[in-house]
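PROTEIN DESIGN WORKSHEET
SECTION A - STRUCTURE
LENGTH: 260
TOKENS:
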């Protein structure tokens, strides 16, 4: 197994934000919400286009290509967004050129994503070429230093307290298995015995006792997906600053105004 010097990227610009500022109309997709002069996902697109490790970008958009403005010109191809995340990912993967090569998937609600962050993440993935899924995560102190007070879902492991990022790389052939795994976890979340059968008692007990390690979490993911998985720690806080509520949208706009 190998990891190429340059990869294709899928930018997911769909999804919705349930609560918007008063008087603001809901756009067709969350990635189209404006942050400063650009739509949120268009800001992430710039980071992908400027990264030397990204060869080509597929934009998965709820708006047809003919209706997109010049701020989306960096996308090499536009695929229609699906009804949910899984369908949108499938639509993006269908437009990639190499079904065997790893693909970077990027959430469209990362308004401050930078090309160095993208390049760094892919470089770290390349050091784990045996994997088929590379999942980004970040330390709490990294987030607090750059974006103090921004909320995340934190998990406490032996090595520290972490949250997930909006960057995931995968080999396209495992996408279907990931879809099934998500369904299995959703169905088992209120059934401890079934959850233990999926993840293993050792993993669940270690997490409950705060003794779970990153390698143990990687092994649980391997057992779930049936392929080697690698956790990729990012030192860039912007990889986890995602707009998932009204408060983070307003904070992102405030920061964008201050920085400009």
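SECTION B - SEQUENCE
RESIDUE ASSIGNMENT:
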């Amino acid at each position: 197994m190998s990891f190429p010097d340059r990869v294709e990227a899928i930018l997911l610009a769909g999804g919705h934000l349930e609560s918007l500022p008063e008087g603001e109309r809901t756009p067709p997709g969350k990635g189209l919400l404006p942050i400063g002069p650009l739509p949120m996902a268009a800001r992430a697109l710039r980071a992908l286009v400027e990264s030397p490790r990204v060869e080509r970008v597929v934009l998965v958009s709820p708006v047809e290509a003919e209706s997109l403005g010049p701020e989306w010109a960096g996308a090499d191809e536009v695929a229609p967004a699906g009804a949910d995340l899984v369908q949108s990912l499938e639509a993006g993967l269908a437009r990639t050129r190499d079904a065997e090569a790893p693909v970077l998937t990027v959430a469209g609600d990362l308004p401050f994503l930078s090309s160095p962050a993208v390049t760094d993440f892919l470089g770290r993935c390349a050091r784990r070429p045996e994997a088929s899924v590379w999942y980004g995560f970040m330390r709490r102190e990294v987030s607090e230093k750059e974006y103090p007070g921004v909320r995340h879902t934190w998990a406490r492991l032996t090595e520290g307290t972490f949250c997930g990022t909006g960057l995931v790389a995968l080999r396209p052939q495992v996408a279907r298995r990931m879809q099934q795994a998500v369904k299995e976890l959703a169905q088992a979340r209120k059934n401890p015995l079934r959850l233990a059968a999926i993840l293993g008692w050792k993993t669940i007990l270690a997490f409950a006792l705060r003794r779970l390690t990153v390698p143990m979490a990687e092994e649980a993911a391997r057992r779930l997906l049936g392929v080697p998985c690698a956790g990729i720690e990012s030192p860039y806080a912007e990889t986890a600053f995602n707009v998932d509520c009204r408060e983070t949208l307003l904070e992102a706009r405030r920061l964008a105004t201050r920085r400009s």
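SECTION C - NOTES
The mean pLDDT is 85.
The CA atoms of residues 100 and 210 lie 37 Å apart.
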